[in-house]
Amino acid sequence: AGLTHGPAMEVQACLAYSMLTAFKTMIHNVFLLYHIETFTTVYHISQSGLFWVELVFMFYNSINDFVAGWLSDSRLLQQGNESGQRVSPKTVLRRIKALAVGGPAFAIAFLLFWFQWGVDMVALQLLVSFILYDGFLTYIDVNHSALLADLAATESARARLSKYNSIFSCVGTLSVFASFMVWKNGDDMLTFRMFCVVLACVSVLGFVVCAAWLRKTCEHSWAVASRILPPPLVSAEQQQQKQQQQQQQ
């Protein structure tokens, strides 16, 4: 299922795959910088409330990665083995679809932190936001990381894809510099919320467009490969089974 048919096709796959990283990073870095400060200095969460939220989330996070990875890979890799390939095209398309759905959900979960639900619901808001945000983050991370090995069949292709991915990861951090201009120590939350909404909208659009672009690139690559590669060899056992079926008919 690797993309190895033409340099132009490889560049398109690298760009589409790596831009997904940028749209995730631009949100995640802002989250890391401001979510605790928002709930402590703006929403004034109590120390006990913050302690219990962090404790519950610690247990949730300890099993979330394992469960998400197992649920994603156990079913998808079984399909690849049944088809006789290292990774089937259906597996790759399912991962891309997971990014097209999970990416926008991740961006929407990001917004839950910045709009206060109520004075008495601060701890509950933080816990629910944590669980949803980390759940979707893990979901897209698992599928996005697995795609690197699925798309790059050789070491050189994998190194090239990793290089593009690192570059666009740095591009995604530019949102942090922009956030410094609107944060203002939490004194102007309206402006900061508008900034976060813009970030989320850009991320949603980016995930949808780049996932569609990556899917189109993969399908085109497989179509080219089917015309270039010779038909698969049929074993003697398969030939015998085919002859028996023809005799029965």
Describe this structure in words.
The chain is mostly helical and 249 residues long. The protein has helices spanning 7-42, 47-82, 89-111, 122-151, 155-172, 174-183, 189-228, 236-248. Helix 1 packs parallel to helix 3 and helix 2 (47-82) runs parallel beside helix 4. The longest helix has 40 residues, at 189-228.
Which residues form runs of ≥5 with pLDDT under 50? none
Helix content: over 70%
Cα end-to-end separation: 35 Å
Order of helices and strands: HHHHHHHH
Q: What is this entry, summarized?
A:
With 249 residues, this protein is an all-alpha fold. It is built from 8 helices and no strands.
Topology:
Elements: H1 7-42, H2 47-82, H3 89-111, H4 122-151, H5 155-172, H6 174-183, H7 189-228, H8 236-248
